[in-house]
Design a protein that fits this description.
The chain is α/β, with parallel strands linked by helices and 721 residues long. The chain is built from 20 helices and 27 strands. The strands form four sheets. Strands 14, 18, 19, 20, 21, 23, 24, 25, 26 and 27 form a ten-stranded mixed sheet that branches. Strands 10, 11, 12, 13, 15, 16, 17 and 22 form an eight-stranded mixed sheet that branches.
Length: 721
């Protein structure tokens, strides 16, 4: 079995003197991820959040956990099956894969208990107080039952296929994460001596998991779809006595394992593996806690699972489907107040976006600034006859995306090149479809460097301008070309015509389409070519400034920090006197605040209304401050396994906005920020001064307010160490 990823580079060991201070120098990636999902769950538990937003956060934790199980837990099981039994080094825990898996599964069981405690003890009572009810079949009024049965007859029953398991009817192939109902049955005609048989019904995926009902006046009532199906199983299994019934769901290994030597093309290989993914080995079974032991054991044995891989749920199997409540319940007071992003406007005397960019770069901070300006840039390229060439990367996009439509339209009259990443996790199927449709429209479609995901966010337009000069115009971003997620992911976009930037962007496209390496990509940092080394050099430069008595500090915002070499460079910089503030939303292996190792490093995570996705890196550089943005986190997969681009922001007003408005706001947040402690726990930021939420502040700024960020001077007070 061959994977498409390259072996990550090895890093030098950290200084031994520091090892005495703590048990190990790095937090486990998987435990760090679990702590992140715990922070999301805290938002569901937080009564200061609107009720339906809390339900939404709970659903997000379930969706997050699904991906974690089908990728990370499945990966551990795969390695164990393949015979990888060596213990890790002491500073990584010193555990074998089996031991790490045992610890991780115990942690997941504890987390699932927390999820259902939140649902049963907090959210359900709060919803009922607001006259929102998720009812059992036995709780329905006669009128509601009649309505539910009508829906069942017309919409549900035609899609059901009841199966009994016997020598003539083998166990059906249960697809990944498909919700099913398991039944223990006894044939009535066989009398008391009849043996029990297993029955299975798959709940249709095409239907909503929450069926709305006309409730009593003022009430908003629902019944779970599987509850409705369960209420009618006697009709499906006539001639059988139904002894027990329970909903269950199986999660399967969803890693893609490409056979490189047999590949006819990347597209065909990914397409074939997507088919296999739906039928991968089972790694988890969720089943209602009321299920009797005989049924649990029969199902567990069928799916070849260990007892620890069975998760009993004290409530709806698959909490992620509770997201439907958010869209179905039309009560604005139970949601965040509506927010309208700021629309980009051309400067005075500028006739179009190209005229604007010849004068100044444009920076947008989504979702506070509307994503329409990015869509408009791509659409302008498609419609403007003076634009003769377009190039773009696509990692994830959305159905009916205006950007996709613009590229398709442009392919009929211009030279259009699109680099589509087929292996963007769980978007593979849609990306295959986009690739084929683009090719049919005359677009040149490429799939990047084999073995590396193309994760950079770049667009390049070539235009013959009215002055007779042919110029390049570029978009560089930190987020995907996805107008839907741009409404709730925070990201940075820069539009520019600066020759040094746009020429470097073209070199990156040449690398992606022909694997031709340039002597220099400056001023860009490009993974897997230059970014990893350049990043460490910038950190070491700050250490040099600190030793020389010059201003030295780092503020870095990202989604994840796991790269050993980078973490070790940060430890060394801290010991040299560099003040380091890290805003890391998710996984972080760095241990902050340890005397003699990382006492000048502070780590904060912000989980709020919007998903923090922007990557911003600020280096004080002896008083000549530099700021970069880009698509890459400080993780091995970004630095050595993907094609990434990090770009400088040098225009004075944009630089000032990044430093004094955006980064400053996140550093001052004392409402949604959690601070990582040396022992791995996260604690709420201390409420020094008035409550301040960075995201709320940035929304107010977008709406025209003239608020200011509270000044933060005392590092110890900010960190809470």
């Amino acid at each position: 079995m061959t994977t498409t990823t390259r072996t990550p580079r090895k890093s030098a060991p950290a200084k031994k003197a520091s090892a005495k201070v703590v048990e190990n120098l790095f937090f486990s990636r998987d435990e760090s991820w679990m702590r992140f999902n715990q922070r999301v769950l805290e938002e569901a538990q937080d009564e200061t959040n609107p009720l339906l937003e809390r339900v939404k956060f709970l659903a997000i934790t379930a969706s997050n956990l699904d991906e974690f199980v089908e990728i990370r837990v499945a990966g551990f099981l795969q390695r164990i099956e393949d015979g990888y039994n060596l213990a890790q080094p002491p500073d990584e825990g010193g555990l074998t894969p089996q031991e790490r898996l045992k610890v991780l599964v115990e942690r997941i069981h504890s987390f699932v208990d927390d999820q259902y405690r939140c649902w049963n003890e907090q959210l359900l009572p709060a919803m009922q107080a607001q006259k929102i009810r998720v009812l059992r079949w036995s709780e329905l009024s006669d009128g509601a039952r009649a309505q539910a049965l009508e829906f069942y007859e017309n919409e549900v029953d035609p899609l059901l296929t009841p199966v009994t398991i016997d020598p003539s009817h083998p166990f059906p192939r249960v697809l990944n994460k498909a919700l099913c109902i398991g039944l223990l049955l006894k044939h009535k005609r066989s009398g008391a001596k009849a043996q029990t048989v297993l029955g299975v019904v798959t709940v249709p995926r095409a239907l909503p998991r929450l069926v709305p009902l006309v409730g009593a006046e003022g009430y908003c009532d629902f019944i779970l779809l599987h509850e409705l199906v369960e209420s009618q199983v006697e009709r499906m299994f006539r001639g059988y006595e139904v002894l027990s019934r329970s909903a269950f769901r199986v999660t399967r290994n969803s890693n893609l394992y490409l056979q490189e030597e047999e590949s006819r093309s990347v597209l065909e290989s990914v397409r074939a593996e997507l088919h296999n993914r739906r039928k991968g080995d089972a790694v988890r079974m969720e089943i209602e806690s009321s299920a009797i032991e005989e049924m649990v054991e029969r199902l567990r044995t069928n799916f070849e699972l260990e007892p620890s891989q069975v998760f009993r749920t004290d409530g709806p199997v698959n909490l992620s489907r509770l997201m439907n409540l958010y869209s179905e319940v039309k009560q604005p007071t139970l949601k965040y107040p509506a927010f309208t992003a700021k629309e980009f406007k051309l400067s005075a005397k500028c006739t179009d976006i190209f005229d604007e960019l010849r004068k100044n770069d444009v920076m947008l901070h989504h979702p506070f600034d509307s994503y329409a300006a990015v869509e408009g840039f791509i659409e302008a390229g498609a419609l403007d006859a003076s634009v003769i060439s377009m190039k773009q990367t696509l990692y994830r996009t959305s159905k009916d995306s205006s950007i996709f439509k613009a590229l398709t339209q442009a392919g009929q009259s211009k030279e259009v090149t699109v680099v589509v990443e087929l292996m963007a996790r769980f978007d593979e199927d849609s990306n295959i479809r986009w690739a084929r449709e683009l090719e049919d429209a005359g677009v040149g479609v490429f799939h990047g460097i084999y073995g590396y995901k193309t994760h950079c966010k770049l667009a390049l337009l070539v235009r013959r301008d009215p002055d007779g000069v042919t110029r390049r115009y570029a978009h560089l971003g930190t987020g995907n070309y996805n107008p839907v997620t741009a409404r709730f992911y925070t990201d940075i976009s820069v539009l520019t015509s600066k020759p040094e930037l746009t020429a470097a962007v073209q070199k990156v496209f040449n690398y992606l389409t022909a694997e031709t390496e340039s002597e220099s990509y400056s001023p860009l940092m490009v993974a897997p070519l230059t970014l990893a080394d350049r990043l460490v050099t910038l950190i070491e430069r700050e250490a040099g400034h600190a030793k020389a008595g010059k201003p030295a500090s780092i503020i870095a915002k990202m989604n994840g920090l796991l790269d050993r070499r980078t973490v070790e460079a940060l430890y060394t910089a801290s010991q040299a006197g560099v003040e380091i503030d890290l805003i890391v939303r998710g996984m972080c292996s760095l241990r902050p605040g340890v005397k003699g190792l990382s006492e000048r490093i502070r780590v904060r995570s912000i989980v709020g209304r919007f998903l923090e996705h922007s990557r911003i890196f600020c280096f004080e550089n002896g008083g000549k401050e530099e700021i970069y943005c880009g698509s890459a986190d400080w993780m091995p997969r970004n630095l050595v396994e993907r094609c990434e681009v990090v770009f400088p922001v040098t225009q004075a007003d944009l630089h000032k906005r990044l430093r004094n408005e955006i980064l400053a706001a996140y550093m001052a947040d004392n409402t949604k920020a959690r601070l990582l402690q040396p022992d791995g726990d996260y604690v709420r930021a201390p409420k020094t001064g008035a409550p301040f939420s960075a995201q709320d502040f940035l929304m107010r700024i977008a709406e025209g307010a003239e608020d200011k960020v509270p000044e933060v001077k005392d590092h110890e007070k900010v960190a809470g160490h």
